[in-house]
């Protein structure tokens, strides 16, 4: 009788890849987790229970075939595991690194619910694709036939690049337009290297270019450029993301030393490329030797506190108005930050800033959790008389992002937007009310996860291909 390769969660405990010691990893921007060895990856994959209703798969936005590629990994069929993973996910090695698995696939693992510890899905996913790159299994797109239609994509983030990949596979001519000098969007400039090393992103960019995707970088799309793009292509996808930072309107908010998270993170990532960054070199966006206070409790805030530690801040504190259980960011990232020396001030909210020309402190009001608000979470309430001042030389606002005013920026007053400024687009297809114009990712959803942007890009590409095929069939009659 053949040996059972799966359902070993009773005999084998959950085991994540080794994590570098916090005192070592806080000195650089390298990724903090080691790679699985082949035997360890097979062992951990074999813990999967292969359940009849895989909640891990249903709670993945891409509905990745997780049980299938875990089984293939456990039985040593890695090339097939990679093919299965790649079939539903354009960037599995990126999702394996930065997806909040604790809130998605791993958080809904059946054996986790039974007390045995979840399968390490993200780490195995990362291992599969990194191995595929090492073995030369990852190849540029080679369409069976080239098509004459073309699609222009505005924005080289994960949503735009996922759409570009799917369209090129079908032979469509694709041009991606982006305002930055490197493709990748927040994957390149927003997420720090200790979570996602930049060569991982760049090799995907290179693969897309090798497969025939054209990139127009350093390209600011204004009214004239948008009209040109629309005229040139059969369809246009808006995948700009949301980059406008939410602000704080309170006493002292205009003081020097109070910075936006996106500016801080972009400067740090640019320095890692060896770019000249004036506002980093002059100290403005450099945490070295400073008392840093980060305001916010999401993943961007976690990126900021951990970056500050690596830049040599003398202290790093994070203010969040709710408690740990109610924070929106990853619990795993919070733990990593605490290990590296970040102090979290829970139930704490800013009410203003002190200082003459430059900030020297944050006025903090202590909070307690009251009745649930409209979102169902307990609303924070001020505790009267519990205010204090937190010393700070650098304050970083990580309060989330909002969309830019695209109808004005693109000179398209008819571009339909919601009251939040996001583009109105049809569910799944991404089609807007403007003929031939689609939208995907955060510019439709608001600030969200990379994995959702990938899903939107893939779904939109599929919808465009159906339209192009239908138009071709009519023209052939």
Characterize the structure shown.
This protein is of the alpha/beta class and 477 residues long. It has 3 domains: 29-135, Alpha-helical ferredoxin (Fumarate Reductase Iron-sulfur Protein, Chain B, domain 2); 150-242 and 404-476, FAD/NAD(P)-binding domain (3-Layer(bba) Sandwich), CATH 3.50.50.60; 245-401, FAD/NAD(P)-binding domain, CATH 3.50.50.60. The protein contains 19 helices and 16 strands. It has a 5-stranded parallel β-sheet with strand order 3-2-1-4-16, with helices on both faces. Strands 6-14-7-8-9 form a 5-stranded parallel β-sheet. Strands 10, 11, 12 and 13 form a 4-stranded antiparallel β-sheet that branches. The model has no long low-confidence stretch (mean pLDDT 94). Its cofactor is [4Fe-4S] cluster.
Which key features would you list for this structure?
single chain; 477 residues; alpha/beta; Fumarate Reductase Iron-sulfur Protein, Chain B, domain 2; FAD/NAD(P)-binding domain; 3 domains; 5-stranded parallel sheet; 19 helices; 16 strands; globular; oxidoreductase; 4Fe-4S; glutamate synthase (NADPH) activity
Distance between the termini: 59 Å
CATH second-level architecture of the largest domain: 3-Layer(bba) Sandwich
Q: Can you count the helices? A: 19
Instruction: Report the count of strand segments.
Output: 16
Side-by-side strand order of the widest sheet: 3-2-1-4-16
Instruction: Supply Rg.
Output: 23 Å
Structural class: alpha/beta
Look at the structure and give the CATH class of the largest domain: Alpha Beta
Q: Poorly predicted ranges (pLDDT <50, ≥5 residues)?
A: none
Strand percentage lies at: 15-25%
How many separate structural domains?
3
CATH homologous group name of the largest domain = FAD/NAD(P)-binding domain
> What would the CATH topology of the largest domain be?
FAD/NAD(P)-binding domain
Q: Main beta sheet, described? A: 5 strands, parallel
| Bulk shape | globular
Helix content: 25-40%
Summed over residues and divided by their number, the pLDDT gives a mean of 94
């Amino acid at each position: 009788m053949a040996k059972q390769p799966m359902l070993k969660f009773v005999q084998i405990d959950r085991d994540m890849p080794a994590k570098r010691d916090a005192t070592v990893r806080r000195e650089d921007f390298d990724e903090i987790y080691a790679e699985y060895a082949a035997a360890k990856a097979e062992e951990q994959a074999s813990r999967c229970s292969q359940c009849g209703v895989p909640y891990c798969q249903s709670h993945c936005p891409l509905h990745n075939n997780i049980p299938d590629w875990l089984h293939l990994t456990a039985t040593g069929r890695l090339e097939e595991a990679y093919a299965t993973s790649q079939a539903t996910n354009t960037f599995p090695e990126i999702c394996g690194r930065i997806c909040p698995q604790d809130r998605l696939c791993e958080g809904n693992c059946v054996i986790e619910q039974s007390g045995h510890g979840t399968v390490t899905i993200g780490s195995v996913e990362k291992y599969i694709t990194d191995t595929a790159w090492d073995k030369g299994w990852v190849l540029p797109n080679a369409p069976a036939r080239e098509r004459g239609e073309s699609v222009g994509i505005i924005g080289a983030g994960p949503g735009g690049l996922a759409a570009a990949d799917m369209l090129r596979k079908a032979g469509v001519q694709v041009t991606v337009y982006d305002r930055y000098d490197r493709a990748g969007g927040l994957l390149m400039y927003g997420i720090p290297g200790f979570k996602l090393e930049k060569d991982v992103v760049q090799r995907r960019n290179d693969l897309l270019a090798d497969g025939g995707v054209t990139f127009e970088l350093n390209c600011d799309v204004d009214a004239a450029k948008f009209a040109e793009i629309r005229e040139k292509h059969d369809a246009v996808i808006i995948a700009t993301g949301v980059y406008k930072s939410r602000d704080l309107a309170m006493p002292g908010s205009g003081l020097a030393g109070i910075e936006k998270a996106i500016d801080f993170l972009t400067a740090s990532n640019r320095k890692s490329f060896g770019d000249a960054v004036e506002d980093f070199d002059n100290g403005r966006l450099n945490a070295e030797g400073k008392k840093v206070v980060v305001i916010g409790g999401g993943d961007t805030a976690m990126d900021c506190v951990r970056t500050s530690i690596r830049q040599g801040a003398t202290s790093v504190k994070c203010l969040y108005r709710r408690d740990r259980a109610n924070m929106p960011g990853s619990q795993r990232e919070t733990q990593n930050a605490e290990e590296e020396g970040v102090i979290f001030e829970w139930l704490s909210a800013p009410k203003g800033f002190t200082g003459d020309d430059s900030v020297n402190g944050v006025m903090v009001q202590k909070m307690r959790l009251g009745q649930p608000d409209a979102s169902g979470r307990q609303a924070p309430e001020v505790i009267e008389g519990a205010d204090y001042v937190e010393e700070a030389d650098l304050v970083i606002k990580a309060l989330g992002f909002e969309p830019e005013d695209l109808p004005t920026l693109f000179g398209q007053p008819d571009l339909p937007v919601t009251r939040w400024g996001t583009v109105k687009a049809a569910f799944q297809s991404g089609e807007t009310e403007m003929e031939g114009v689609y939208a995907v990712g955060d510019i439709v959803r608001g600030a969200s996860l990379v994995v959702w942007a990938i899903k939107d890009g893939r779904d939109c590409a599929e919808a465009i291909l159906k339209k192009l095929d239908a138009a071709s069939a009519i023209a052939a009659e």
